[in-house]
Amino acid sequence: MRRITALYGVLVGLFAVVLCRLYLAASNTGYAARAAGQSSVTLSMPARRGTFYDCQGLPLTGLQTGWYALCLPGESSYVRLYDAATPAGQAALYQRRNAAAPFLLEVSRDVSALGVYTYPSVRRYCQAPLCQHLIGYLDGEGRGVAGLEAALDRQLAGSGSRDTITCEVTGQGRLVEGTQPLYTRAGFEGADVQLTISRPVQRAVEAVAAQTMTSGCILVLDVDTAQVRASVSLPGYDPDHVAASLDQPGSPLLDRTLAAYAVGSVFKPVLAAAAIEAGLDGLVVECPGYTMVDGQVFRCASGTAHGTVDLAAALEQSCNGYFIRLGQQLGAERVLEAARALGFGQHTPVAGSLQGAAGELPDLETLEASGQLANFSFGQGQLLATPLQVAAMMNTIAAGGVCRTPSFVLAVLDGESGEVVESGAIPAARQVFSARTAQRLQQLLTGVVAEGTGRQGAPIHGSAAGKTGTAQTGQFTAEGEEKMNLWFAGFCPAEDPRYTVVVLQDGQTDPVCSSARIFAQVCEALWLLEQE
């Protein structure tokens, strides 16, 4: 009996010890937190991505700071952060208002003053995006979908590293007492990309386009190198909300600088160059406002009779009849040769898989038909070309007959050190016609602006040379009015060319401003930038 009593006493004593330990654990908040299921939660910031820079090292992306707020359960995040959240963030707040775990919320400003943990993040695109069509946009996962973002996605994304925020939390998702979130910055193994674009020139040209155009594009090239200093396409889109533009009229996602269009009379300098090289530039034609070719009638614009015209007058007045006769004298093979030498009918490489359209160049068999050759001689018929190809052609004239493929990328840079990893390809220079021919063409195109159809292309300061073009598209409005492509291609200053400028307004019936006048405003903006 004594043994049983002693054993019972020992058991009661052990039970009392366990009760005491349980009481102490329950009264200790640290133990209580751990008992509630303490755990570690790691949240990821958006993936780091290489930056685009201009030719002077100025950033084209990542110019603005974005913010992410750490939302913790039980902190009334919905009420405190709703006004600061982006539209997408407001929807996320509502969906996760009863969340039992921390999450990151994109907000429009620094909300740390509200007692909320806030972390800066680079916004990929600014509110007024720079070079949006050339650079392109990303998908919801941060991968390149269009433009250079897609063409150089591998280099820009690198390893896809992300900065992280680690929180020690209770079972209710709240921070463990006495702890703070730990921000860990990840190394970046991707690359930055330096473009030939000039940010000041790009911004200036974008401003001109916004004030004068509804649909079209503008290109600015450096004459000596054929590097593209500005590339603008309208209408634009918001790269942060691409879906909103998918069904919008006017194809806002299309980069018009790389798309092919009917070109019209901006093609006439190609025939002029071939004629000068062949010694056939002495042709004189009597123009009654139309030309008959094997029973077909080809009219000059508005049926205007130009009278007796030589090459200079034909370019100044854009006389279709003269160039039809010139094309006949040159022959289809010689005209095609000149066009191919200047890059027509060939894809223009930009970077990676991104390239300009080849357009369309009729073959020799097609041009054996007299009507086809007649149309081709003044830039119509089966001829299609991109603004980039037209810019290369005009730049060849401005550069003394030396043809260079326009380029967009200067270098790929190490994302951490900024050192050059890979230099952009330097296009080979080809002398496609003589410097003497180029000089003659420069003088003739100066006359177009001084005395001819391009008078509206004369800037207030300095001089310019160029060629107008109005191309039929075969597309009509509901009222039966044909839509036209309105071109101006030229260079400035006329006597010492530094910039080649191409303006296209596509699908127009009643433009706000002529393409020649837009060209003049771009030249004026370039002159003003050089005064700074």
In which range does the helix fraction lie? 25-40%
Give the strand tally.
Answer: 23
Structure classification: alpha+beta
Q: What gyration radius follows from the Cα positions, in whole Å? A: 33 Å
- On the 0-100 scale, what is the average pLDDT? 90
Largest beta-sheet characterization? 5 strands, antiparallel
What's the shape? elongated
Strand order of the biggest β-sheet: 10-9-23-22-21
How many helices? The count is 17
> Which consecutive residue ranges, at least 5 long each, have pLDDT under 50?
29-36
| Share of β-strand residues | 15-25%
Q: What gap, in angstroms, lies between the N and C termini?
A: 110 Å
Describe this structure as you would to a colleague:
The chain has 532 residues and is an alpha+beta fold. The protein is built from 17 helices and 23 strands. It has helices at 2-27, 29-35, 77-81, 87-95, 132-135, 147-151, 153-157, 199-212, 268-278, 311-317, 320-330, 332-341, 364-367, 370-377, 387-398, 435-451, 515-531, and strands at residues 39-44, 52-53, 64-71, 103-107, 118-123, 164-169, 182-184, 191-195, 216-222, 228-234, 285-287, 290-293, 296-299, 307-309, 348-351, 354-356, 402-403, 409-414, 420-423, 430-431, 465-476, 482-492, 499-508. Strands 10-9-23-22-21 form a five-stranded antiparallel β-sheet, with helices on both faces. Strands 2-8-18-19 form a four-stranded mixed β-sheet. It has a three-stranded antiparallel β-sheet with strand order 1-6-7, with no helix packed on it. Helix 8 runs antiparallel to helix 17 (515-531) and helix 9 (268-278) packs across helix 16 (435-451). The model is unreliable at 29-36 (pLDDT under 50).
